[in-house]
Amino acid sequence: TLRFRLTMWITVVVLLMVVVTNLMVRAVEQRALTRNYDQFLVDSLEEVSQAVIELDPADREKLFPELESRHQVNEHQSWFVQVFDGSKQLIWSSRNAPPLPAPDISSELKGPYDGKTHRVYEKKITTFFGETCIIRCGYLHAELHDDLDLLNRNLLVVTAFISLAAPLGGYLIALRATRPIAQIIAAATQLQPTNRNERLPIR
């Protein structure tokens, strides 16, 4: 029937719009989440770099408690930090740091770049005392993937709800749109050829 076809078309159009919109939202949110995580890496690396720049090599042991404190604050994001000297020998590392190779950095900055399991950012600095150090920060890919999975689940719930509501909404719209036609058809079937005074109802 016409009403059924209208309901189907409205439902299909609504679902297509929802799918396209959700794909666009997912793409935008994925880029935004990645930028936010990368900005977190940049900010945390700058904080560590500033602490190392002011470090007197003779007081190196005083830096470790501060680094451990920063690590504990950000540990819930799987954040790790490592400090290397100019010869790329490890000076200090947080306990959750992955077994990455020594830094291979030729310029001042490297990254953020993707390792096997982590996203990593590295920076070469020179302290106030002329010592060269390399700072490495990073976080687990799983942290970003967990946020993306949460976004996908929310979008899936919205899509499922609209998929259930769209046919009902489509039927109500089709019912309202076809009601005048149904009334005309019903009235036309009651017209008598012998009675020329009968007319279709006009609003």
Topology summary:
Layout: H1 2-53, H2 63-74, E1 80-85, E2 90-93, E3 109-114, E4 118-126, E5 132-140, H3 141-190
Antiparallel strand pairs: 1-2, 1-5, 3-4, 4-5
Question: What descriptive keywords fit this protein?
Answer:
203 residues; alpha+beta; 3 helices
What does this structure look like?
The mean pLDDT is 82. The protein is an alpha+beta fold and 203 residues long. The chain is 56% helix and 17% strand. The two termini are 25 Å apart. The protein is built from three helices and five strands; from the N terminus they run ααβββββα. α1 packs antiparallel against α3.
Count, helices: 3
Low-confidence stretches: none
Strand composition percent: 15-25%
The value of Rg in angstroms is: 33 Å
Largest sheet: 5 strands, antiparallel
In short:
By secondary structure, the protein is of the alpha+beta class.
